[in-house]
Design goal:
heterodimer; A: mainly beta; six-stranded mixed sheet; five-stranded antiparallel sheet; globular; B: mainly beta; seven-stranded mixed sheet; 11 strands; about 0% helix
Amino acid sequence: GEDVEQSLFLSVREGDSSVINCTYTDSSSTYLYWYKQEPGAGLQLLTYIFSNMDMKQDQRLTVLLNKKDKHLSLRIADTQTGDSAIYFCAEMRTGRRALTFGSGTRLQVQP
Amino acid sequence: NAGVTQTPKFQVLKTGQSMTLQCAQDMNHEYMSWYRQDPGMGLRLIHYSVGAGITDQGEVPNGYNVSRSTTEDFPLRLLSAAPSQTSVYFCASSYQGAQNTGELFFGEGSRLTVL
């Protein structure tokens, strides 16, 4: 989706933290999401954040939302090899039912 | 516990052939949609439906038809396949109730190659 941008690739070492970034353009977005796609599989929801929140933490995952800069990030603490996957940022805009996805960030975790 | 089921998982077509990708969900979700995934382009919405008998176009609807005769099923039809339709297709559904967070539940995908 051209309105949601992500970097294509991130490589980290096992045990380090990973930070995946996303920028979006529509200030009317209501929910923002992070989905994970493992090879040969569909997408699974990792976490989401409502647009009136700045931060959400869920175990090893921390989502930060900067509405002023339209920037969303996903931090994975203590990254494991099982976290290797493609991570998609997505937004839901007010009045729309469909999600707009970024092009995905491939996370590679080195043992 | 099936969730969203897509068939077939793989298909090879010749240019000009027609086919239908099937999608079924057993979660009683009102909303269903079809996306295509191409390298470096994320997922793009083809068509969607907010309930039985109601369909609408997404970002990239040309070359595809859909129908929604039941809540459970949302087939995607390619009437005359073109090489540009080579892609991985995902069906997704979601609940549209008052507490809806918009979470989409995805099928495992159908990989289509058009020669």
